[in-house]
Every structure is written in structure tokens, then in C-alpha cells.
Amino acid sequence: MAVTDHSFDLLERRHGWKVEEVLVVTPYVEKEFFERLAKGLHPQRLSVIIDDGCRLDDIDMVTKAVSKAGSKTVAGLRCVLGSAPGLMHLKLFYIVWRTPGKRTARTLIFGSANATRQGFGGSVNAELIASCSLTMGRHADVISWCNAAIAAARSTEHIKLAGARDVELGKGIRLRLPALTIGRKKSALASFDLWVQRGWLLSEYRPDPGFLRVPIHLSKALSQTEQERIAATSGFAVPAKKRLTFSYALPEGQVGNGTDDDDADESDEGGNWRRKFFVWTQLGEWCSDACHRAEHHHFRRKGYQQREERLRCLETLRLPSVRQEERDRFLASLTKLWNDFGEEASELLRGGDALDEQYYAQLFDQRVERDLALVVDGEFQDRYLTGYELSQVPRFRPDVRGWRDFLESLARQICLDGARKQSQSRLPRAILEALKLTGLDDAGFDDPEMLLEKLKLVFEKGECGDAIMAQAATTISRYHLD
Prior knowledge:
Strand order of the largest sheet: 6-5-4-1-2-3-10-7
Largest sheet: 8 strands, mixed
CATH architecture of the largest domain: 2-Layer Sandwich
Radius of gyration: 30 Å
């Protein structure tokens, strides 16, 4: 048998055995894991419980991954959210088999590995994974807990699953299985903390200054202003006296060193969307997940269309004829620079009696190949085009002090924005409207701590069925809408 580093073999069907049931309980999920699980086991029923702080599209991602194994597997899939006061942190995998002899066998897999490629792949994370066979005679309590978790996941109700403490697994081995709340729907108001947790953080993206530019390293520094002028008039930028850069993949009609608008202009495309939709926090500017999904097409810096055009120009360089034309333009500019430097040319650029065109042609091709490889990454493209990076709020709610500090920084800014008469921020406006609806607006935006208490109360009571509080929580969560 071939030795592998990965642990996906634990999720493969045994010869002649059928898989009736699979339970996955995990805080984090990833596409490849579920593709391999579904393909390897082909379970009749698959129940997945994910921590409720997950991305709202994670459930759809799991469904799409499982669909590659066939429609029958998708039909047996049930994917729900699991809740705990902090993070639902256990990683548990339970498999119910039907043996060739028509007997029932059960396997429990647990440890530190999430339901992710990183957890089971073997080449990224260092994980501890245990696998053991269960029998009804020796492991009834473990089987009972797993069966109860499956029943809760497949129910339409919001169910509290009791914990199982010190259940026997083997001689001298005991498990402590946690209590969970299972079945929260994506549409539920949940809690204020969870609403914030599912939000997004915005930060400015500083692109690689060498992207779409060929660096020319000089043998010695440009010592005279005249030489710097000569370099600039030949189409080269002079960011440092011993290095020139040449911009390529320029749209038709654009000449010069091709400085992007995102380097030269700090304003945003589409007006003041940052002031409307985002609130400053100690971790960056925050917006809700619903706001991100509805308004993300606005989240871009000035010069988006110009950067889009440059990427289109870059893609054309995959054609040999276009690459040759652009390479010739680059070499022509270098030749002009060589001639303009005169007798000092060989002291600055590579060459003897003439420019070393072969060396610089290779340099050009290497840079183009590097940049073409970069733009294959969709995330890189998105960051380059928009000029921003968006990331989900890290799941650090169990870090009580860190989470409290983060919420307090959010509340302080809401209070500051709410107190400004000319503020365009929509969240304080929605909060004020919600608090008036509930009769909780007596202190306005005077006290960040009090504001947090009120917001948590609104979401909590709204989740418990108070109609007025539910309406107020909905008003807050839809703040991005006019």
C-alpha cells in the first residue's frame, strides 16, 4: 500500500461496504474536503453542522461541492448552523456503514482537523486525527450523542443538544462531547455579536509597484539631472537613481511611464460610499454582510476602468505577435535611451559597443510571464482593480477582551457619526430609527457602552419573538438601504 501524507483515506469507502449516514461537525469548511468526502463515501445521508459564525455562502459552497458526487448525495444532504456561547470548536466525523454481511458498523473520527483541505491534506497543517470503531455494546453513549446531533440537524426545529460527559471510548479513554444549539436558520436575526461577526473589513490595497513594469537596474547611479531628464523623455520612470522602470501593457494612445491612477489619486470611484456604508473600527472599516452583498460593486477606487483596460492589454500579450510588438517597443525605448546617454551609455546599461538587446528581451519576457501568472489569481485581480482588500471579520468572539474592545471601537464610531449633523453614515441613522421604534432612544448617541447594551437587547429580544424588537433589528440590519 502506498504511503501518503494526507488523511482523506479515512473518508474512503471500504470494498463491498455501503455508507448509510455521515455526520460532520466543524467550525470551518472548505470545498475540496467535501468534494473528496462525497466522492469517497457516496453516503445516502450527509448531515453537516457548521459554526454559526461561518460565511453565509458556506452552506451553498458545501452543496455545490457535494453535487459533484451526484444528485442522490445532494438529495441526502442537510447542512445547518451550530451555536455555542463562543465558537463551536469541535471537529467530529461520524460514519455509519452497512457491511457486506448486512451488519451495521460505525466509525468515529475526531481531533484537531477541520473539514478542510488544510486539515486533511497533510501538506499544510500539522493535525492530530484519531479514528476508532464504535459498537453499540461498548459505545452506546457516543453513538447516542451522534444520532441526536443527526436528528437535530435534520429537524426543522431549533434544537438544544445536551452534552455527554466522560463517555467511555476505550480502556482509559473518555470523551467529553459538548452541548450545542443546532438548526439556526440563515434568515434568523441571531445576535448583535453574530451580525457584526459576519461583517467585512475594508483596507486599502497597495499593489506591487513592479506590476506591469519592467525594472531596469543601472550599473551606477544617475548622477546628473540631465541624465534623469533623458531617461524620463525616453519613457522610463526614475523611482531611484540606480533603477528605472518601463511600463508596458498600456492602452492605445497612452504614453509615458504609465503611472496608474491608483498611485496618483486617493479619491474613490462612485462618490462617498465609504462614508455611507462603512464604520471605522480598530481593525479597519466595517460593513455588514448584507451591505457587502448588495453594494460591493461600488467598492472601488478611482481609475478602475483604466486598470481594467491595462489587464485586458496584458492578456493580449499571451499572443506571440502582440508580445513581439510590445517587446519591440520596449527595446526601441532602450535603444533611444542608449543613444541619448551617448558615451556614458555602457557605464549605465548592459552592453559594449551596442545595447545588449538579447539580455533586455529576456528581462522583458520574464516580467511579462510573472505578471501573466499573477492575474490568473482572481483575488489578485479583484484587489488590483478595486484598490481595496475586503476580508471577513476574524472569528475571535471567544477572545472576550479582544472582542469587547472591537465592539467598543465600533460603538464609539457609531456615536461619533451619529452626533455629527452632516454625517452621511447610514448605520447611526438606522439605529436611531430602531431605538425610537422601541422607546430606547432616551440617551441617543451619548454613551457607547449603553448603545451596545441596547443593540444587543434589540437583537436578543427580536430573536426570541418580540415583534417590535424584531422590526427594530431588521431596520438596523438593513441600514444600507435608502
